[in-house]
Amino acid sequence: MSDAPRRPLYAVDTNVFMDWQFRYYPTDIFSSLIERVDALVAEQRFCSPALVDEELRKVGTPELIAWSDAHTSIWVPNAEVLAAALTIQSRFPGLLDPKSEFDEADAYVIALAQLRDGIVVTQETSASEKRKPARPMYIPDVCRELGVHCITLQGLMRREGWKL
Question: Which InterPro entries match (predicted)?
Fold first, then answer.
């Protein structure tokens, strides 16, 4: 048996994909970042509920959708996390934003991390960090309540020791 620490699985929220490939780290500039993510994918440590893929297809860039198509192994079928996601939604109704069609995946991302003893990766901040939060709870708030580790994309980079 190895004494090496377990390498974590990352359950990734929709906004991470958008920030990574579109807003802050476009792949034509940060090519080494995509190589690092691809390595996590190959190790089966970078995944997301299929519901996130559905969201990306509505709001993502053509390049992001093409990347998604080339990395189908990261999409965990919604049915695998459905029961846990529904439990989270029931326990934390403030997580859902009735005005947004995309918040539904939040509970699925948290459930995936919970079921696989992983880490949630999201760009959301806690409701307490916002001046006027649109809802009472965000992913970091629910993760804190459930004892699920939650980090940002930069947190993932630091945790993995990436130097870009």
Answer: PIN-like_dom_sf, UCP008505
Superfamily per CATH, domain 10-160: 5'-nuclease (3.40.50.1010)
One-character DSSP codes across 92-121: -GGGS-TT-SSTTHHHHHHHHHHHTT-EEE
Does residue 99 register a pLDDT over 80? no
pLDDT of residue 21: 81
Strands (DSSP E) found in the chain: 10-12, 46-49, 75-76, 119-121, 150-151
What residue ranges do the domains of the chain occupy?
10-160
Interval 12-42: pLDDT, tens: 999 999 888 878 888 888 889 989 999 999 9
The span from the CA of 124 to the CA of 118, in Å, is: 17
Take residue 72 and report the two structure tokens written for it: 């189908």
CA 21 to chain CA centroid, nearest Å: 14
End-to-end C-alpha distance for the chain, whole angstroms = 33
